[in-house]
Design brief:
This protein is an all-alpha fold. The chain has four helices and no strands. α2 packs antiparallel against α3 and α2 runs parallel beside α4. The N terminus is likely disordered.
């Protein structure tokens, strides 16, 4: 039996750490009186850069998943549980990355619709 929670814990912890340190994770968002414009710009840039780092990690997981499937099909690897866990880990990390991307796009749209 495959324990998905153990196999994807690295991806979940990485995304969870990203969400905990994101500027809007407190639920209150930015308050102009508390945070300067420069701080907001750097926080947003840091958030986008963090997403870029996770994008490369997700890509690496996808590539290792593909390689493990090819190894299984070619007969180099006969352990199907490791292949299934690699595919599940890549799938979960991709879904989490898409969710973070959607939240960033939603936050951008809300910011653009704010009255001046």
């Amino acid at each position: 039996m495959i324990n998905i929670n153990n196999n994807v814990s690295g991806s979940l912890n990485a995304i969870k750490g990203f969400l905990e340190h994101s500027p809007t994770s407190s639920g209150t968002g930015f308050k102009a009186s508390e945070v300067g414009a420069e701080k907001q710009k750097s926080d947003f840039a840091d958030t986008v850069n963090a997403v870029g780092k996770y994008l490369t990690k997700v890509d690496d997981l996808q590539q290792s998943s593909d390689m493990s499937m090819k190894d299984l099909l070619s007969g180099k690897n006969e352990d199907i549980t490791s292949v299934v866990s690699a595919v599940a880990k890549a799938d979960m990390s991709f879904k989490l990355l898409v969710g973070v991307r959607n939240k960033l796009i939603e936050a951008y749209k809300q910011t653009m619709n704010m009255p001046l």
